[in-house]
């Protein structure tokens, strides 16, 4: 049986996030959003927990045998994210308190902070698809 395909998307800011979620219609695939800090020139996020989680998440997704949509969302620079008025924090759809945060869209399941880098927790989140 051929491996299922994970479709990846990258959203670079809050406006792109809003546009994307407004266009989610009835879906045949579950959608997951990973919110992370923007990348510096070296290609790594300014957020240390995002740096730690990224390779674990990527490795897990490369082995995942499911049809899902996985969306990376850049929450911006540190100063923008740290502002209490940051729209990612105040938007009722995301309600972010920490990054990284991995959300299953349309559900209550989420992983926050260092949880995103724990393979067993990733497995539990994605197994809820059944």
Automatic annotation (TrEMBL):
Entry GO MF terms: protein-disulfide reductase [NAD(P)H] activity
Domain (Thioredoxin): residue spans on this chain: 12-128
Record-annotated membrane-spanning stretches: none
Cellular component terms per the entry's GO annotation: cytosol
Subcellular location(s) per record: Cytoplasm
Pfam family membership, one: TXD17-like_Trx
Keywords, comma-separated and alphabetical: Cytoplasm, Disulfide bond, Redox-active center
Domain of life: Eukaryota
Claim: Disulfide bond is one of the keywords in the record: yes
PANTHER family: 42-9-9 PROTEIN-RELATED, THIOREDOXIN DOMAIN-CONTAINING PROTEIN 17
Similarity comment text for this entry: Belongs to the thioredoxin family.
Annotated protein name in UniProt: Thioredoxin domain-containing protein 17
